[in-house]
Amino acid sequence: MASPSPIPAGVTKEQAFSMAQTEMEYRVELFNKLAQTCFNKCVDKRYKEAELNMGENSCIDRCVSKYWQVNGMVGQLLSAGKPPV
Amino acid sequence: MASPSPIPAGVTKEQAFSMAQTEMEYRVELFNKLAQTCFNKCVDKRYKEAELNMGENSCIDRCVSKYWQVNGMVGQLLSAGKPPV
Amino acid sequence: MASPSPIPAGVTKEQAFSMAQTEMEYRVELFNKLAQTCFNKCVDKRYKEAELNMGENSCIDRCVSKYWQVNGMVGQLLSAGKPPV
Amino acid sequence: DQLQLRDSLKMYNSLVERCFVDCVDSFTRKSLQKQEETCVMRCAEKFLKHTMRVGMRFAELNQNAPTQD
Amino acid sequence: DQLQLRDSLKMYNSLVERCFVDCVDSFTRKSLQKQEETCVMRCAEKFLKHTMRVGMRFAELNQNAPTQD
Amino acid sequence: DQLQLRDSLKMYNSLVERCFVDCVDSFTRKSLQKQEETCVMRCAEKFLKHTMRVGMRFAELNQNAPTQD
């Protein structure tokens, strides 16, 4: 459910390329939002050191995992409510 | 006053298309900012239920209306200060 | 150090154009973020008057200068850590 | 309509971000807890209903566009 | 210059959002009240003046770009 | 890869903004003070390490994509 829409059959090469690009932009934005959000949730902003400590690292791993789940849940909700885009 | 710039006469078809696209991107962004802002102003973030209640609904309607007015005011201010883009 | 990457030799005209556009988008975004950030740091949000007062003006000048320095520092850090993009 | 697809993907990403930020605050496990899931579902539904309502109002205002206020 | 137009529209949208967020907080009526209007106008003017000033400083720094700090 | 370049520039701009916002709060001089510089460097390094870690986790999840949770 991570990718919001598979490429339907019977599209031209140009359309497929354009869709692939849109798909990629979507993934890039997903990644950027995830990275910003998990930084906000997990990292100490006083910057006492340049390293991530153990607590921050495990928080980040869990944060990514939970964000991914939320992404999947919203995808399912949307695909249940209406036909794919 | 909502649209920031009418398409001037004497432009090529390509330019007109490009302008129309820019105009549309502008409207989409206006809509997205409006939607995010009014959600922040009007909706209870504790999410005790999945429905919008009556208070939230009327807040949203007024919020959209006021946002639209602010959009128009800023448009007038800009078009008064300097020649159209 | 402000510009993140000079255009390397031996690229086609199309590529150069595309790079120049990317470079420009980068500068525009830098400018927009700088403007928003310095407004947040320096300007009184109660809007008692339509003019920037002296304190706000000098804060803005220093804010731009410091933002520029931070931009340069991050650029140096990135170009030190790995080969240019 | 490519533009429309891109927009709906942007909206989708904003929705995920918002509901995550508002609903998930504990990172002692790697799976969502029951009440986090409930919160996310309500948040998402509420945001979709909100967006539809805003869309309707927005369309009305755009129709009467030339002069407003 | 298409790019420039797009930018100025982006700036425009950010300006509207900022002044709305900073100045409008009551939703008991559907029209702006007098003091909200005043606040929006000052906010918009202030933001425009701010942007022009930042633009001037930014241009100066870009001219002396190769070495700074 | 043009897209990739654009992304990394976007990331770069976000990094600069974040570290500036988190580390610089005094505007009595026009040059960064020592502790502001230290803060910016740590912030930038921390953010880069964070991004690499998120990238690794994200890649793992994308590989097992079809079914998750």
Q: Summary?
A:
By secondary structure, chain A is mainly α. Chain A has a domain at 54-78. Helices cover 68% and strands 0% of the residues of chain A.
Can you offer a commentary on this structure?
The complex is a heterohexamer, with three copies of chain A (85 residues) and three copies of chain D (69 residues). By secondary structure, chain A is an all-alpha fold. Chain A has a domain at 54-78. Chain A has helices spanning 13-42, 54-81. The mean pLDDT of chain A is 86. Chain D is mainly alpha-helical and 69 residues long. Chain D has helices spanning 2-23, 34-63. In chain D, α1 (2-23) packs across α2 (34-63). Chain D starts with a helix and ends in a 6-residue tail after the last helix. Chain A binds chain F through residues 1-3, 21, 24-25, 28, 31-32, 34-36, 38-39, 42-43, 45, 47-52, 56-57, 60-61, 64-65, 68-69, 72, and chain F through 3, 7, 10-11, 14, 18, 22-23, 39, 41-43, 45-47, 49-51, 53-55, 57-58, 61-62, 65, 68-69.
